[in-house]
Structures are given as C-alpha cells and as structure tokens.
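Troubleshooting: if your tokenizer reports a length mismatch, compare your output against this known-good record of 307 residues.
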Amino acid sequence: MPELPEVEVVRAGLEPAVSGARVTGVLILDERALTRHRGGAADFEAVLTDRVIGGAARRGKFLWLPLDREAGRPATAMIAHLGMSGQLLLRHPAAERERHERVRITIEHPAHGELAVVFADQRTFGSLAIDALEPTPDRAAGGWGTDVAAVPSQVAHIARDPLDPAFDDRRFRARLGRSRSAIKRVLLDQTVLSGVGNIYADEALWAARIHPETPADALSTRAANRLLAEARAVLLKALAEGGTSFDAQYVNVNGEAGYFAHSLNAYGRTGQACPRCARPIVRVSFMNRSSHYCPRCQRRAPGLSRR
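Known-good structure output:
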C-alpha cells in the first residue's frame, strides 16, 4: 500500500497541474472507485463538474483537492485514497485509457490548458469521493499543501503525520505511555500517527534499534524521541527518492517509479546482511503481514512476550 512518501509524491505532482483548474468533464468507468462517495456515480459527476480546484492537500495516506465553494453550501473537496494499487496520473485528454482506469476527470487549467486526471486501480481497493470539509480541532492547517484549518470529514479521524508541522511530539509520547501494544502495532495505527505503513515502520524501528514487539509503554522518553527522529529521517529520504516501488503498482503522476527500494535496510531483506552488523535480517509474521528486523541490533528484551 502506498504510504506517506508515495502519496506525497503524487500530491506534489498534482498540485501545479490542478490548482486553479476547472473540471470540464467526469467519466466514471467503474463505480467501485466511488465506494467512499455517499452518492452514486451520477451525483459524483454532477457535484464535481464545473468546479474549480483550489490545490492539492494531504494528511497521512489521504489526499484531497479542495473545490470552490458554492453559495449556501458547505466547503467540499474531492478526496482520494489509493488503497493497495491506486494511481492518480496526469494525461493528455485524448490519451488512450490506462489498463486499469476507473475514473477520468478532464480539467482546463488557465496556464496548462486541457489535462486529464486519471484514477487507475488494479485491485480496486482505492476510492474517490466528494466530502464536506470540517474545522480541525487544533485550528492548524488540515495537512500538507494547504493553509486552511479544515479537513474532509472522512479524514478527520486520521492523526497528523510525523512530518506535519502541527504534529504534537508530546501527545505522541503520551499515547505510547498509555499503550501496552507492540510499538510496531502503534506505529501502524493511523489514529496515533499517520502515513507510516509496514515498510517505513520496519525501517524506522531498524534505524532506532528498537525491536518491533517492544511494548510501547516500555520505551523511555529518549527512545521515543529517537524513534520519531528516525521515522522522520526515513520518510524524508524516501520522499527525496520518489518513494518505494517494488512493481508497477506505485508510480508518480507521470507513471515513473520511485527508487527508495534500493535504500532499504530491513524491509524485504530477509536473509541478507544487516548493514550495521552483518547479521542476517529475519522476517516474522505480524498482524497478517511481516516484520523485518535485525536480531542483534534490535534485541528483544528478556521476558518480552508477543502482543
């Protein structure tokens, strides 16, 4: 599943192309792409057509395109979640359909002319929707790419991500102190902090030398701060390298793959030498997926049980 770096790469690619553009057409090829929309395909098309897009914003793994406000109606945005294999691509309006194209939105930009925003999704777990914006409880900007203190209602339960200027380190440490769950489970909880999935959780824990099954409340303040710092460093490096692509499912808006996979230290490196100590990286089952870690660098505390 695309995580923070991959979704941010997509958001940053969309922003200059969609900001100030007017939606001139909406083609729904597969209504499964609208599972998060509270109306049907006809409603999605009617609400979105002829609206002006204000930009591109993101919180965690969700991104949204704010829409111009209609008189007497609440502020709204088109939200997108890429699911396991969703892609948002910029194409010429006359370009042939993508292999797994689900929705095509034609826009007219004052500087770039006509473009098509294509939502393609091989596994159909991603979704688009029109949603109302609601004020953020902390009165800070809703996420990256916006200075408006509002967030789509379907995204309001998602915590801020570690790169968000409004992320509260103290609150995060307090959440750790109240949880007996394994620290990796907490990192994957999008209501605690967002944008971190299996790949970057493994990488951050490896960098911080913390065993993934360490109870969250067993971490000292120093260890929690180190973990946050390493998580931020990993996410920033992945952003700089265009995200992680293992196959053709994740690409940027131009269809290009990221190359952070070449910088991974733990994730997906089962049996390979740890870059720090040369001990083989191990893979264990965790929450219906896998954890990858170094048994020497990330020692399991004596008596630590699985949680």
